[in-house]
């Protein structure tokens, strides 16, 4: 097989697996095998740029930078939808369209209304050509590079598709991925995102497509647009799109009467809560395309479609006060303190107000009666003020201008919604927040020391930063509130023991902005010591897998602060691990340099991924298929018979898991 064919085969194979995994949700091969094939393809493509294809599955990992998103005029306008809120609204709509059509018994396709960012994707000859945001409906931004990283969006179509068409859908962020992203952000000292929808639409406008690729976005399609598409109904177009490889939820129903539409609406009003992503209603569409064309459009929306919005669970209560919280990174968050009220089964006392813009938009005042709603977000939010109940004497609120904790004037960076207290090293919650992060379980995991004790130690003037912890003596701690001989001893011992925590966790513990657990590991491995990291240039940092410019800049900023440099120096003097330890280094040996392995079957002592990692950590290479260049096949249970044959034919040594581990 020549190289071109090999590349072509790999691309086809990977597309197929992508489809099974992300669209059908039923993977055929393991993640590991997939990664190996992808790696093989990437290597071949790199070596043979002449076979470049903008729709190769390798573009899924991103890496394209878009500085300015080009404005593109939609060939077919993207409309909004009219909203309805009741059965009466829907019945009226039905009457209206039946009158225009002079017909009775219109059929409808009912779909869920996915809450994300709308997108229009153009395909030509079965290839993804362009993806454009809705914008103002007439023109939007070209976000092709970013959309191509979304695994469920087909780059190449299957089946019998028309030569050219646009398909519209919604880019969404399922709850699970959203929650995970937020956990990682909180760990890395970043503010959590407000809700899945905004995060999905924000993701489309990121400049670095590799960053988009890391986000667990999905794309659900619902509309075909174009000429001579060969479909006659909305329901059929959904089926067709599905056949061509698009992800089209199978929740859509063909309804023959308004009664059936009501049943659909009622069913999903309850069951939507069990969906893995946010939905805010249903969309009801006249099924027959000829009838759709006859009905046409108003200035804003199609006459043939109607959104029905679900009512979110809502209550009203009194706003007692607003407090402003300052986080570890200095971000200020306004929080509404409410008169406790029961909402969706839990008592709500507080609600996030997000930021100054949000407060202004609500025109919220102390003493107001406000409507509180629980949407997809974890924290309930205030949607509106009940102006009919406003005390005429009440005064407009103004956002605080100084830090409530340290009095420093707040700043707001251009383009950011949040206010910040810039007094990083003097603002109490920022100081204690950093120390609390340092001692936390995933960081230094210091036993005998908790968040409250950190605050107490700080208040007593015993610590100002995490390096100060190592100067604490038992005698200083014993007299503190709720401390005794034994607990003071535990605390000091716990701190002493933290000197054994490996470097990668220390690096995470330092609380450098954007350096979460995973990034810390990558940096530790790539540079080996804090010394090297602190000296690394922007380019060197960015050269590390998964380290983007934002992280790199933050690392540089951290080490350009003299205070930080001093603290790190002190940590070193106390004996904290600031480089990869000797046995870790040994682990990262060259023992397998120049040796190529193929891994096959199921293992007992280590997982396949661990095995692969062990090979690579020790300088070896993992290949996905056996060739004359393979040195060893590590065989577990159920090794494939064809692999076995091939190895024997080529005279490649087959070794067991134990043989391999002994090799190390
Ligand atoms: P709105 O933004 O409230 O005017 O609602 C219109 C938007 O709903 C469209 O632009 C789509 O992005 C979105 N939408 C979500 N699900 C669907 C669906 N199944 N059919 C049509 N539009 C949908
Ligand atoms: Zn402050």
Model description:
By secondary structure, the protein is an alpha+beta fold. Strand 20 (632-635), helix 24 and strand 21 (653-655) form a beta-alpha-beta unit. The longest helix has 21 residues, at 3-23. The structure holds adenosine monophosphate and zinc ion.
C-alpha end-to-end distance: 36 Å
Ranges with pLDDT <50 over ≥5 residues? none
- Integer average pLDDT: 90
The CATH class label of the largest domain is: Alpha Beta
Please describe the structure with a list of short key phrases separated by commas or semicolons.
Helix Hairpins; 6-stranded antiparallel β-sheet; alpha+beta; OB fold (Dihydrolipoamide Acetyltransferase, E2P); 6 domains; flat; 664 residues
Secondary-structure topology with pairs:
Blueprint: H1 3-23, H2 31-47, E1 71-73, E2 83-84, H3 87-101, E3 108-114, E4 117-124, E5 127-133, E6 139-141, H4 144-147, E7 164-172, H5 175-187, H6 196-204, H7 209-214, E8 218-225, H8 234-243, E9 253-255, H9 258-271, E10 279-286, H10 289-295, E11 305-309, E12 314-326, E13 331-343, E14 346-352, H11 356-362, E15 369-373, E16 381-385, E17 419-420, H12 428-439, H13 451-459, H14 474-477, H15 485-497, H16 503-509, H17 517-527, H18 530-535, H19 538-542, H20 549-559, H21 562-574, H22 582-587, E18 596-600, H23 608-617, E19 621-623, E20 632-635, H24 641-650, E21 653-655, H25 657-663
The protein binds adenosine monophosphate and zinc ion.
Adenosine monophosphate binds at residues 80-81, 111, 113-114, 118, 134, 170, 222, 283, 307.
